[in-house]
Amino acid sequence: QQQVKQSPQSLIVQKGGIPIINCAYENTAFDYFPWYQQFPGKGPALLIAIRPDVSEKKEGRFTISFNKSAKQFSLHIMDSQPGDSATYFCAAKNTGNQFYFGTGTSLTVIP
Amino acid sequence: DAGVTQSPTHLIKTRGQQVTLRCSPKSGHDTVSWYQQALGQGPQFIFQYYEEEERQRGNFPDRFSGHQFPNYSSELNVNALLLGDSALYLCASSLARGAGQPQHFGDGTRLSIL
Question: Per the CB < 8 Å rule, is A103 touching B48?
Answer without folding.
Answer: no
